[in-house]
Design a protein that fits this description.
Helix 1 packs across helix 3, helix 1 packs across helix 4 and helix 4 packs antiparallel against helix 5. By secondary structure, the chain is mainly alpha-helical. Strands 1-2 form a two-stranded antiparallel sheet. About 15% of the residues are buried. The chain has a single domain, classed as Globin-like (Orthogonal Bundle). It has 5 helices and 2 strands.
Amino acid sequence: MADFPLDPDQGHANSNRTYILLAFAREGLIAMDVQEASTANDQMSADEQAISTCVQRFYAMANDDSLLGPIFAEGITDWPEHLRQMSDFWSRVLLGSVRYQRDPFTPHHTLGLQAAHFDRWRDLFQLAARETLEGPLRERAVGAAAQMSHCWRQHMMAK
């Protein structure tokens, strides 16, 4: 991180660079130059694209699956919208974005889901994550799928 030049006329070495203010901290202003911000944005875009690819890979496998396929075929009528929502959901889980603002449980209450559905969902999502994601993003997705499967099973089976 570069120091933020409070007065560019002071002849600071970075006075000719353009800065983007990121946050305030106890020590004062924290800033990142445009090149650093661009790199961070490129990584976020790459992560977002990887999540979208993972979601698409998962649904391709799930639709072909004898256990999950019929549930998705019956329950999803607008596939492009569903894939967008699920990409937003996983972006929230893995990156902390805030685009997904829905209650994820409500649409699933009428589907008649059983424990085997959650296990199969977990296995297929983890496989999709391992095939499409890299590094820490992959590890977070695999771990989140395991935890989510467990929590969803408890929540949905209690209904």
